[in-house]
Write the structure tokens for this entry.
Amino acid sequence: MSWKIVEKHRRILAQEEGVTSKRRGGKLTVCLVYPNRYTVAMSNLGFQAVHALLNAETDILCERAFLPDPDDLREYRKGGTQLLSLESQEPLSSFDVIAFSVSFESDYLNIPVIFDLAGIPARTVDRGASHPFVMGGGAALFLNPEPVADFLDLVCVGEAEALLPGLLDRIRAEGLGDREAFLDKAARLPGIYVPSRYEVTYDGVRVVSRKALGGAPEQVQRAWMAEPDDRATVSEILTPGTEFADMYLVEVSRGCPRGCRFCAAGFIYLPFRQRSLESVKAAVTEGLRSRHKIGLVGAAVSDYREIGELCRYILDQGGKVSVSSLRVDRLDGEMIEVLKASGHKTVALAPEGGSQRMRDLINKNLTEEQILAAGDLLIGHDILNLKLYFIIGLPTETTVDLEELAALVVKIRERVVAAAKKNKRLGEVILSVNPFVPKPFTPFQWCGMEGEASLDKKLKYLQQAVGKLPNVRLIAESPKDAYLQALLSRGDRRLSTLLLRAAELGNWKRAAREFAIDTDLLVHRSIPLDEPLPWNVIASADPERLKREYRRAFSV
Ligand code: SF4
């Protein structure tokens, strides 16, 4: 065992607030693994919520493990130490259950790395009763679990609050000793997907057939928490090692009622559920005991029905408010004053579509006048730095749409400059540009992603047109990263081979070449509406609504 790693784990633990220590003694032991680094994992409220949910059970001990930082990774490999849990520094192989929490599909690449470090075979077919039982959950897995389906005994499709109680009861009743018998029964539980109970055949990139075996349902329906007030979702563990070190996070709502056609959050967390003001205030009061700043969390925070009253409450209690971005059409003077009083110098808005045609296509329901009015309102309240989110490469986008995007940015910049003349302070317009990635369970799931070369050209155009203007800064997600995201979002089970080899080579492109996987076809292909989709073994959104929205978008 590496003492360097043990020491580091102890140092991290010593800095954490809110950890409860438990002893193993006869409990079911679960290691909750986030397939990315500690900092990323502990900034994730979903990961923290599952950890707390499991530890709330008296007969369960849940510890955490992460992808090691690069230095630690070298240390693990040099010393041949097996991957250790954070709390007790026990090897993952000593736990009864390993539970992956996966929010982003790009982390699929890290799952085989973690198996390798843990000394546990990645494929379910290569594991036996002496190995931990391996399950997974999280948004990436209820978008498309197929690329990692061969690694997981079981997948939770939906929200942990709705799924874990039934699953844990079944584990208590049956035990995990006879894996196959347990999986047969688990496959019939609502929201539980057992990949080994499905036989899939392919023709090229297309799914030809899928057969459910041994009484498993044809399709696993997503499960969701019916009563959001039953359990608060808040920062359970506070630590300096996260993006949100200075704040206490409180979830105010789940889901989003807006239905933007590119956005998975708008479909896979439906219905839109709002926590009661009373319960959110209670969570805020608790949070203010340890942090001055409250980070409000939700896909649609500014749609929270009592957002004004909640923000006033936080300020009245001597706290500060943080929100990640605001709906343009929900912005008002009161909200801006709250943000100013909380020390916000920059406010983020998300028009997403640069032209009116693109905003209509994605169902953003925003006009240019509304965007400019929101900018004016912010500038008028002395918030001079505006961050604007845009997507490029949306289906049917042309240079005319990009020109309109650039013109919109110029108009906003002119307003910022005009304000600077009056008050002698110049603000900044930050343009955050992301390539469109077609996501499962959105109306655009059938659309292919635009080619890398074309996206690069568009970014170059924007850089020329607006990126060089004084007090405008353009930051863009690389089309290469977006390509990988699309590949892992749209892939099928056969990608597990690529993931395993990519972990060995440290290079997924070489792995794809070795297996002659046509990744371009998977990423760029437009899929016919009637073709079976790899991820349709689960049902995270209403397929008829998705088709309807697709047809509305493209008038077909
Ligand atoms: S983009 Fe924002 S407003 Fe639109 S559906 Fe997604 S979360 Fe809701």
Summary: The radius of gyration is 24 Å.
